[in-house]
Amino acid sequence: MRRVTIPAGVAPVIQIPAMDVRIWLLAAVRFVVTAGFAVVMPFLAMHLVVDRGISVLRIGGLWAMSSAGCAAMQWVAGHLADRVGRRPVLVAGMIVRSANLALLGYALGHGASFGVIGLLTIINGALRGFYDPVAWAVVASLASREERVAAFSLHRVGSSLGWVAGPLVATLAASADFSLLFYVCAPFTLLAPVLAMFIPETRPEKPRQTPSFFDMLAFAGDPVFLRFLFASFAYFMLQTQMYHMMSVFAAKYVGLGRAQVGTLFTLNAILVVMLQLPAVQWIRKLGTAKTLVFGSLGYTVAFAACGLAFNHASLLACVGLITLCEIMTAPAQQARVTALAPPDKVARYTGIFGLFQGAAQTIGPVLGVFLLETISPRGAWFALATLGLAAAWLYRAAKPGSTTLPPSGALRP
After folding, report:
1. Which residues are CB-contacts of 159 (< 8 A; sequence separation ≥ 6)?
2. In this predicted model, what pLDDT tens digit does every residue of 320-364 receive, in sequence order?
3. For the chain, does the N or the C end have fewer beta carbons within 10 angstroms?
4. Three-state SS string across the chain, please?
5. Following CA atoms 350, 353, 359, 360 in sequence, which dihedral angle do they give, to the nearest 10 degrees?
């Protein structure tokens, strides 16, 4: 199919119709999975704190264990996918997670103990880890190297649209009993494995050998990459507050209702859908190094501003700035990892990057609620914002071989 020369910021969207229809199916799968999750799970912490009276500290510990389960299960899912196939792992994980959502609804509706709800939440987090590594492998197999940027962009947009639809449904159903929403989400998310069944198996006939433990530690001799990893660790420790503690702070200390809290996540997703692709032009002009430094400094300002938020509008403004920084830094981080990695160790470097990201997103909620309870609800945001300063300093110290993206039309995953 002949391609038309267009501005690089929108090129992935224009080229999407020429891609394999199965990539479109996987994007639809991603939308269904994310939308079903986003109707209920972001509001679970708010429900437990406000309606059940569970302490914020216990909620932070629960979310940390859920994130840890997700991080650990990603390696397990990848290992299983190489042994038994990608499609069965993908489909089975989504079916079991739909059942888990139904069980959570039953537990909440029948006044189950925090221990039971917590266990189901941790299992839900672990099941979430069975999606991403397998789906990314499928995308990489179905798309050529030239198409992968567009393919992964489409997959990301599917996720963002899910984050628009899910909180919007929760906002419209704000007067409904919270447990009933789980009974709606469970059958809806079953559409995802049905769609995934139309995607054939993409596992190579001879899967690559899993590196040894010592091979996986080879990055320890790369001081520049280590600084990048620690910068990313600080960055994700701060980023995770948006998706875990924001709803608790908004409801308990700013006084927002479920519908208003839902608009915070909706705004985040809408901005990503609208601006993620055009932002590539700005990242190219700044270079990945400067983008990461400026994005981290922007995070510092945005999260500190949360400590000054006093109503719905001011918190929306904070979320808007947080999202703009996320839009800029997310693709810059991915480009930076591959620039720092030796040509024969790209997979190992991206893998350890994911491990540091998961570890930060596990510890982050614990730190957030600890500061929330021990300092003050507003002072905690100023303390957390210092993580952005640390990330900016470390990102500036980590100088890759190339700090800019390839020329227009030459992007590679």
Report:
1. 30, 31, 34
2. 999 999 888 877 776 676 567 665 554 456 657 777 887 888 888
3. N
4. CCCCCCCCCCHHHHHHHHCCHHHHHHHHHHHHHHHHHHHHHHHHHHHHHHHCCCCHHHHHHHHHHHHHHHHHHHHHHHHHHHHHCHHHHHHHHHHHHHHHHHHHHHHHHCCCCHHHHHHHHHHHHHHHCCCHHHHHHHHHHHCCCCCHHHHHHHHHHHHHHHHHHHHHHHHHCCCCCHHHHHHHHHHHHCHHHHHHCCCCCCCCCCCCCCCCHHHHCHHHHCHHHHHHHHHHHHHHHHHHHHHHCHHHHHHHCCCCCHHHHHHHHHHHHHHHHHHCCCHHHHHHHHCHHHHHHHHHHHHHHHHHHHCCCCCHHHHHHHHHHHHHHHHHHHHHHHHHHHHHCCHHHHHHHHHHHHHHHHHHHHHHHHHHHHHHHHCCCCHHHHHHHHHHHHHHHHHHHCCCCCCCCCCCCCCCC
5. -140
Residue showing tokens 């491990």: 355
